[in-house]
Amino acid sequence: MYLMKDITRDGAKVLRERAKPVTFPLSDEDKKLAHDMMAYLVISQDEEQNEKYHLRPGVGLAAPQVGQSKAMAAVLVPGENNEILFKEVLINPRIISNSVQHAALAEGEGCLSVDKDIPGYVVRADRITIAYQNEAGEHKKVRLKNYPAIVCQHEIDHLNGVLFYDHINKEHPFSIDPNAVLIH
Ligand SMILES: [Zn+2]
């Protein structure tokens, strides 16, 4: 399983590369990667289990963040009452459509690969449709809005060498169009 020491930090070249497409059927190595990335998220969100591992809680983890330039990311988005809003390992994902309406997390975004706090709105699309393959290689298409849509855009960015703060307006970090949805 992955520990904090295994997480690639900002400055590493792999975080700025375009991740390579994953081929099917998945190799044993890729199956383990998918499993271990999701296991990180599950344990990091479970206070009891995490007492042992001290993982920084995460809702998404992309393969480049564990040093592997592969188009794969695990996403585990909990809701307010601990229900699961979205859980999937996205393989070769891409955004096939997005809303004109913008959205941003009111508290800004964070990233397991970025140790410092970088304030500012990360302006994204409020609603997206993504296409991806699951671990069985099946082609899936899903429509997401609000928080799960933000998380998936953050993760897909990782597969394109983009980090969240790239989207923050340098001069006016809290500028956002008045119609944008601020997600709390
Ligand atoms: Zn990240």
TrEMBL record:
Keywords: Hydrolase, Iron, Metal-binding, Protein biosynthesis
Reactions listed under catalytic activity: N-terminal N-formyl-L-methionyl-[peptide] + H2O = N-terminal L-methionyl-[peptide] + formate
GO biological processes: translation
An MF annotation (GO) of this entry: metal ion binding
Binding locations of Fe cation: 111, 154, 158
SUPFAM superfamilies: Peptide deformylase
Active site residues per record: 155
Cofactor binding remark: Binds 1 Fe(2+) ion.
EC number: 3.5.1.88
Function: Removes the formyl group from the N-terminal Met of newly synthesized proteins. Requires at least a dipeptide for an efficient rate of reaction. N-terminal L-methionine is a prerequisite for activity but the enzyme has broad specificity at other positions.
Protein name: Peptide deformylase
UniProt source species: Lacticaseibacillus zeae
